[in-house]
Amino acid sequence: MAVLGSIREVFGIDRLRALAAVAAHGSIAQAARALHMTASGVSQQLAKLEREAGHALLEPDGRSVRLTHAGRILAGHADLLLTQLAAAQGDLADLGQEVLGPLRIGGVGSAVRTLLPDALAALTADHPRLRPTVVDGESVDLMPRLIHGELDLLLIESWAGRPVPAPEGVTLRTLVSEDVHVALSERHPLSDRRTVDLADLAGTAWACCPPGTAPHEALVQALRSRGVEPDIRYLLAEHATQLALVARNLTASLVPAMSARPAPPGVRLLATRPALRREIRAAWLTRAESPPVRACVAAVEAHCRSTGEGPPAEGGAPAPAVP
């Protein structure tokens, strides 16, 4: 224990985590993917660690690298330390199995707005010593914050055809599965349909979330699969803002069911051909699962059961158009 304590004092935890990842995955590139970092970021961490250790920790191995003898020794200690830290976090969180203390939540806007308010109200009423905090954002930005320990629980989206990856050490649980609709102005020539083939929307201007986000990638993939090159003119993070432009017949938008409530006057929601779906998933670090995380996931699941969040069963009636 004394050795581990002294290692922790001398070397930063993030740098030891980078070394352990290279040892586990065999390359800086693979370690970077596992840690949701850039390869240059991992290299910088390892360069600092080498200076602190006073030994070369990596050596060239063809086009890749391998650990030196000193690197293997330090990586072994890093594994022990990281395991000990995870166990300590679990022991403290499980103390008495009480749901108390901070709970740092990140989520996509529609999930935060639709799923969290009632769930958190019930949760904090039952556990007044719990201190939840919430930030919204896109899955691509929130996942690294979970991996690095800045957040405890995420509510992220996963679109059919562009499923959210399950990083190593992260538990994913599906909370909601829902239809995705095309939002058109009631003045659009195709707005009287109940279902629209995406191929029929060639030449249509689109509003969408910024590049790199799951909704943007899902829209591009869905249109190109029907032979349509996307004409995305409005990059807007919020579906509510996209729908405001749809209502003025400026654009079309792909909108998940929970994001379309309430839709502004003048907007109609059409089922798509092929059908598109989105899931909202809870995500947390498996090693850092705690009573607050478990209680919050359970509260959101209870909310979903009580409100029937999500689409009708397969084969059910299509979503009604919004006048």
TrEMBL record:
<dbReference type="InterPro" id="IPR036390">
    <property type="entry name" value="WH_DNA-bd_sf"/>
</dbReference>
<protein>
    <submittedName>
        <fullName>LysR family transcriptional regulator</fullName>
    </submittedName>
</protein>
<keyword id="KW-0238">DNA-binding</keyword>
<dbReference type="GO" id="GO:0003700">
    <property type="term" value="F:DNA-binding transcription factor activity"/>
</dbReference>
<comment type="similarity">
    <text>Belongs to the LysR transcriptional regulatory family.</text>
</comment>
<feature type="domain" description="HTH lysR-type">
    <location>
        <begin position="11"/>
        <end position="68"/>
    </location>
</feature>
<dbReference type="InterPro" id="IPR005119">
    <property type="entry name" value="LysR_subst-bd"/>
</dbReference>
<dbReference type="GO" id="GO:0003677">
    <property type="term" value="F:DNA binding"/>
</dbReference>
<keyword id="KW-0804">Transcription</keyword>
<dbReference type="InterPro" id="IPR000847">
    <property type="entry name" value="LysR_HTH_N"/>
</dbReference>
<dbReference type="InterPro" id="IPR036388">
    <property type="entry name" value="WH-like_DNA-bd_sf"/>
</dbReference>
<dbReference type="Pfam" id="PF03466">
    <property type="entry name" value="LysR_substrate"/>
</dbReference>
<dbReference type="Pfam" id="PF00126">
    <property type="entry name" value="HTH_1"/>
</dbReference>
<keyword id="KW-0805">Transcription regulation</keyword>
<dbReference type="GO" id="GO:0032993">
    <property type="term" value="C:protein-DNA complex"/>
</dbReference>
